[in-house]
Write a sequence for this structure.
C-alpha cells in the first residue's frame, strides 16, 4: 500500500531488536505515476545511500534492502538495477511476501483461502494503474522473477506465507 508509516512499526522493531539503523523510504505510486518510476526511485535511494552512508554514520559495506509485497518487488528490482548499472551493491536483500511477477496470469495465483487479501481484483487494479503498459510487465525490473540470471545479486532472505496468493512467486 506504500505508505512509509505502515511499516514504521517493523522498522522500529528492527532498530530495537537487531540494533541496526533503518531508512524507511517513500516513493511515488499510481495513479500519479506508472512503472518504472517507483523502481527507479528505489534504486536511486539505494545508490545515494551507498555513496553517502558515511555522512550519516552508516557503514556503506553493511547496507541491506528489503520490503513487503510491492516493496519486495521494489527491493528486488533495485538490486537488479544496482547489479546491471554497477551501483549500490547491498549486502543483503530481504523480500517478504514479495510480488515478483506482474506479467503472469492473475488467475494462476490462487490462494487456498476463500477471500485472500491479494486476489485477482487487486492484481487487476495494480496492473491497470501502475503497470498499465502490458508489454513492459515482463521486464526484469517490473517482474524480478523473470530476470535471466541472479548472478551478482546479494544473498537473499525470502519470506513467504502459507495462504498468500503470491507464495508461488516467492518459492520460484
Amino acid at each position: 500500500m506504500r505508505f512509509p508509516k505502515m511499516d514504521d512499526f517493523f522498522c522500529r522493531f528492527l532498530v530495537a531488536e537487531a540494533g541496526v539503523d533503518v531508512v524507511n523510504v517513500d516513493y511515488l505510486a499510481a495513479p500519479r505515476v506508472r512503472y518504472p518510476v517507483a523502481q527507479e526511485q528505489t534504486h536511486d535511494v539505494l545508490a545515494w545511500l551507498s555513496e553517502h552512508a558515511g555522512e550519516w554514520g552508516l557503514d556503506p559495506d553493511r547496507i541491506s534492502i528489503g520490503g513487503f509485497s510491492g516493496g519486495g518487488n521494489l527491493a528486488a528490482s533495485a538490486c537488479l538495477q544496482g547489479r546491471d548499472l554497477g551501483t549500490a551493491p547491498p549486502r543483503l536483500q530481504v523480500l517478504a511476501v514479495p510480488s515478483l511477477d506482474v506479467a503472469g496470469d492473475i488467475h494462476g495465483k490462487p490462494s487456498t483461502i476463500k477471500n485472500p487479501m491479494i486476489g485477482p481484483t487487486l492484481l487487476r487494479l495494480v496492473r491497470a494503474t501502475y503497470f498499465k503498459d502490458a508489454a513492459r510487465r515482463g521486464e526484469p525490473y517490473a517482474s524480478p522473477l523473470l530476470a535471466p540470471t541472479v548472478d551478482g545479486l546479494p544473498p537473499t532472505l525470502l519470506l513467504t506465507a502459507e495462504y498468500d496468493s503470491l507464495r508461488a512467486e516467492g518459492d520460484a
In short: The mean pLDDT is 92. The chain has one domain: 4-171. The chain is about 35% helix and 10% strand. The domain at 4-171 is CATH 3.40.50.1820 (Rossmann fold).
